[in-house]
Amino acid sequence: MNLGLEGRTVVITGGTSGIGLAAAGVFLEEGAGVAICGRDEARLARTQADLAARFGAARVLTKRCDVTRADDVGAFADAVASWRGAADVLVNNAGQGRMTTFATTTDEQWREELDLKFFSQIYPVRAFKPMLERSDAAAIVCVNSLLAYQPEPYMVCTAAARAGVQSLVKSLAGEFAPSIRVNSVVLGLIDSGQWERRFQAREDKAQTRDAWIAALARSKHIPFGRLGVPEEVARAIVFLASPASSYTTGASLEISGGVSRYI
Question: Which one of 33, 143, 163, 209 is CB 3.0 to 4.6 Å from 59, fit for a cystine?
Answer without folding.
Answer: 33
